[in-house]
Amino acid sequence: MITQQRSLSGASQSPRSPSAQPFLSVSVTDPAKMGNGVQAYISYKVITKTNLPDYQGPEKIVIRRYSDFVWLRDRLFEKYKGIFIPPLPEKNTVEKFRFSAEFIEMRRQALDVFVNRIASHHELQQSEDLRTFLQADEQTMERSRSQEAGIFKKKPADLMQIFKDVQSRVSDIVLGKEKPVEESNPEYEKLKHYIFELEDHLAEAQKHAYRLVKRHRELGQSLSDFGKAVQLLGACEENSLGKLFSELGSKSEILSIKLQKEAHYLLMNFEEPLKDYVRAVQSIKATIAERANAFRQQCELAETLKLKEIDLNKLRLTRSEKLPEAEHEYEVLKTDSEEASRRFEMIVQLMNTEIVRFQEQKTLDMGLAFHEFAKGQARLAKGIAAAWRSLLPQLEACSSP
């Protein structure tokens, strides 16, 4: 992904920086294939540079695999309700593609963006789980993964299904297919509508970006095939026409390489950022579902508390021997109800802050991605025009009677 995005993720200083400002930067580098067959996986070197006092030193290097990143994402999702947890790239289980150089590099860059977004987030960067991820040795990291209970014991495929179920549930709520207790808040309804609409438009843009990449590759391959055919044609001619054909073939080969490079550039700097934001919106939808659950729990507990209060008053009137036990149950329920209300209000406050942050970051990232797209297309068009223009004098001389 484009280099400038790293600075947007908070990775702009080093331990040698004279600035006293607190900083935390992370680099995901050096992907390496480990093991063979179905047990094979890719490991990554994760380099942390920081001057934060909670860390072991100014620089730390650890080895991590994809499942470690999944562990971090799931821990944060469970603990930080109301915060938009950065998304992870999908797990590719197709043997043919998951160890290809291009796929490995795409995943490396996506993981780098993922962890730097966490490191640059005011709340998430203080997470104990992030410190474990960035500093623990491999054995400790493996124990941390294996000791988790509940949602964290599930396999990655099961976790993906959980997130899909969450997204499906909130979709049903928004589309009116399910009628649970809902908060009636016009601003919140507006936000939900915006998020679902944004996902559709981003997915559509990403689909066409994919087609653009594919078209560049196909055109590059066609030019390569054409160049080889024309060069063979030139070899049959011994006069100036043969030389011209050879030059035409060479230019086609050069342009083929340009198109393939531009296709790769387009993939990394335009299609991938769009795909990343599709995933980001899905993470927001998961947070929306958490907010809906928190509101539902708050309402259900409040309603149960009212009913419990009515029962309690009846027991007081009859001076029942069950009164002490009922009073205790009421106090416990009241505490739970107040905690549910606080939890819901906290999620609301965090979401309000998060959506502003998301909008600002999206404006920067999307502006940068589309700028890189336009710049790349202009560069390619200029190169193609210059290449063909250089052949025009010879072609005109050859075609003149």
Structure description:
The chain is built from ten helices and three strands, in the order H-E-E-E-H-H-H-H-H-H-H-H-H. It is elongated, with a radius of gyration of 29 Å. It is mainly α. Strands 1-2-3 form a three-stranded antiparallel beta sheet. The two termini are 52 Å apart.
Summary of the model, kept short:
This protein is mainly alpha-helical and about 400 residues long. Helix content is about 70%, strand content about 5%. The longest helix has about 80 residues, at about 240-320.
Total helices: the number is 10
Number of strands: 3
Distance between the termini: 52 Å
Structural class: mainly alpha
Query: Residue-averaged pLDDT, rounded?
Result: 85
Features:
three-stranded antiparallel β-sheet; 401 residues; single chain; mainly alpha; 71% helix; 10 helices; elongated
